[in-house]
Amino acid sequence: MKLRVDLLPHGGYSDTVLVVDILRATTTAVAYLERGASALLLTRSPDVALALRDTTNAEGHTVRNERYLLGGERGGLPIPGFDFGNSPVEAAGQNFTQREVVMNTTNGTGAAHIAATSGKHVLLASLVNAHAAARRARALAVEEIAIVCAGTDERVSLEDVYAAGVLAEYLLAMGEFTIDDGARIALTLRRNLGNPLEALSSSSHGVYLERLGLGDDVRWAARISESTIVPTLEAQQTREGVLRFVAG
User: Fold this and answer.
1) Phi, psi of 146 (to 5 degrees)
2) Smallest Cα–Cα separation from 7: which of 185, 145, 153, 230?
3) What is the pTM of this model?
4) Residue in 83, 110, 97 with CA at minimum distance from that of residue 32
5) E strands, 35-165, where?
6) In a 10 Å sphere around its CB, with 0-12 CB exposed, 13-18 middle and 19+ buried, how is residue 195 labelled?
7) Are 217 and 176 in contact (CB under 8 A)?
8) C-alpha closest to that of 130 among 196, 203, 40, 227
9) How many whole angstroms from its chain centre is CA 137?
10) What angle do CA 194, 112, 73 make, to 5 degrees?
11) What is the pLDDT of residues 59-101, one digit of tens each?
């Protein structure tokens, strides 16, 4: 079995993919499902998300589909017209029972779309669900597990690489893998930093979120393996530009 870590999304995934965007999309995704959301719909753009929720009737009036709630951000801040930002702390305080959450974020949702282009199985992984996500990936994979770091604005992010190292540690404890240089880098970073909160809070994006007053999200995302929920891409996708994930 091969273990691959991409420090940024590159594509060309043929088997099982773990998409990682610790601050904050994949962490928030777990929180939505924990709070009862029946599905997560990850869109290619904010416009696609808005079009799912808001339609125009014959009289030209906007009609809102109450089945959907929109969550997302640009530059760390909520997207205008969306119901929520991209905060796991905010999500954890809500009840999403019988609702579907439509997500669009700066980095994480785009990484998921790249992974879904060719990946056989696509999972959303974070520190919060790291052990469960690693177990699920190991059960599904036949030839290769790829851990894909979303990064920040097309640049490598310390927090995602650190989380990839945590996932790689769990996977290596489950069996034999041939690892690539990306996995070696992630494992080295994980072993050198050690403490997850230190890694996340010292990262450039962690510092940025703290300055925005979102430090509680950083601390939430630093918890390891407190959830057994793994957002899993459904095999059948019915809408262009939309990926449907359910609790796995």
Assistant:
1) -110, 125
2) 185
3) 0.96
4) 97
5) 39-43, 54-56, 62-64, 68-74, 77-78, 100-104, 121-125, 144-149
6) exposed
7) no
8) 227
9) 15
10) 80
11) 777 888 999 999 999 999 999 999 999 999 999 999 999 999 9
